[in-house]
Write a structure and sequence with these properties.
- It is a single chain.
- The protein is of the alpha+beta class and 277 residues long.
- It has five helices and 14 strands.
- A seven-stranded mixed beta sheet has the order 1-2-5-9-8-7-6, with helices on both faces. Strands 13-12-11-10-14 form a five-stranded antiparallel beta sheet, with no helix packed on it. Strands 3-4 form a two-stranded antiparallel sheet.
- The protein is globular and about 55 Å long.
- The N and C termini lie far apart (54 Å).
Length: 277
C-alpha cells in the first residue's frame, strides 16, 4: 500500500496545519478538509452544498481524477504535482447580476498570490486562465448552486500546476510553476497564500456589494493579457467571433471589436492570435 511518505519531493498537505493557518472565527474559511483522491473537488462541494454544508468549507485533493474546467473539459494531474481545491461561499450581499465577477476576482487573487509566494509574473487570459509567458499554469471554475430551501451559494474551484514536469502536462501550451522558475514549489505555502489573498479580495468585494467599479474591474484589466490582442473566441454552442479584445465591461464580459462590430461575450474559449500591441 502506498505510504504518505512516498514521493518525498512532493510532500502531502497537512490538514491540521492548514486549519490552524486559515480558519479564524470571523474569517472566510470555517473548515479545511484534505482528501487523498477524488473525481472533482468542485463536484464534491456542489453535492455537499446541496445536502446542507455551510459556506466556508475548503476542500483540497492530493489527486483529482476528473478535474473539470470551462466548457466541461476534463483532465487528470499526477498525485501531489499540483493544487486542486474548492471553496463553498455565499455572497449574500452581492446582487446575482454581479456574481459573474467572482471567477474574475478569483483569477486576480491567484495572480497576486503567485507573485507573493513564487516571484512569478503571471497574467490572466479572459475569463479565468492564469498564464506565464503565454503558458497556462492555472485555471478557475466557479459554479452557482441553489440548494432547496436555502440561499444560493457558489463553489469556487482552483487548479494550479505546481511541480509538473513537461511530460506530465496535459497540453503543449501548458506549464507549471516549477518549469517557470518558481522560488518555491511548496504546495502548502502556495495554498495558504492563495487562500489568504482570495479571502481578502472576496471580503472586500462583498463589502462593496460586488461593485466592480470599486477597484476590481481595474485590477482585472491591468492583469489581463487578452486586452489589446487580436483574438478568436470559440463560442460554447457553435461559431466564433474574431477581432480585437478592447475591454471587460461592467458585467465581466469580454468586449471584442471585429467585422460584425462591437460585441460583448459572456462565455467562450479565447485564442490569442498574436502578441499584445
Amino acid at each position: 500500500m502506498p505510504s504518505r511518505f512516498d514521493q518525498l519531493d512532493r510532500p502531502p498537505l497537512d490538514e491540521r496545519a492548514l486549519t490552524r493557518a486559515l480558519v479564524r472565527p470571523d474569517g472566510l474559511y470555517r473548515e479545511v478538509r484534505v482528501v487523498a483522491a477524488t473525481g472533482s473537488t468542485n463536484a464534491d462541494l456542489v453535492g455537499l452544498g446541496r445536502k446542507g454544508a455551510e459556506p466556508g468549507l475548503l476542500l483540497a485533493a492530493e489527486h483529482q481524477r476528473q478535474g473539470r474546467g470551462r466548457l466541461d473539459r476534463t483532465w487528470q494531474a499526477p498525485k501531489r504535482a499540483g493544487l486542486t481545491f474548492s471553496v463553498l461561499v455565499q455572497p449574500d450581499r452581492v446582487p446575482s447580476t454581479r456574481w459573474p465577477w467572482l471567477p474574475l476576482l478569483t483569477g486576480v487573487a491567484v495572480v497576486e498570490a503567485l507573485a507573493r509566494a513564487t516571484d512569478l509574473d503571471a497574467r490572466l487570459k479572459w475569463p479565468n486562465d492564469v498564464l506565464i509567458d503565454d503558458y497556462k499554469v492555472a485555471g478557475v471554475l466557479v459554479e452557482r448552486i441553489e440548494p432547496a430551501g436555502r440561499r444560493p451559494m457558489a463553489v469556487v474551484g482552483v487548479g494550479i500546476n505546481v511541480s509538473n514536469t513537461a511530460a506530465e502536462l496535459p497540453t503543449a501550451d501548458s506549464s507549471s510553476l516549477a518549469l517557470q522558475g518558481a522560488t518555491t514549489v511548496d504546495r502548502s505555502v502556495i495554498l495558504r497564500v492563495v487562500c489568504r489573498t482570495l479571502e481578502s479580495l472576496y471580503v472586500a468585494w462583498c463589502e462593496e456589494s460586488g461593485d466592480p467599479d470599486e477597484g476590481l474591474a481595474d485590477s482585472y484589466r491591468r492583469r489581463c493579457s487578452t486586452l489589446g490582442r487580436a483574438v478568436r473566441v470559440e463560442l460554447p454552442r457553435q461559431g466564433s467571433v474574431t477581432g480585437q479584445a478592447v475591454d471587460v465591461d461592467a458585467s465581466g464580459r469580454l468586449v471584442v471589436v471585429g467585422s460584425a462590430g462591437r460585441v460583448a461575450l459572456g462565455a467562450g474559449d479565447v485564442v490569442h492570435l498574436r502578441e499584445r500591441t
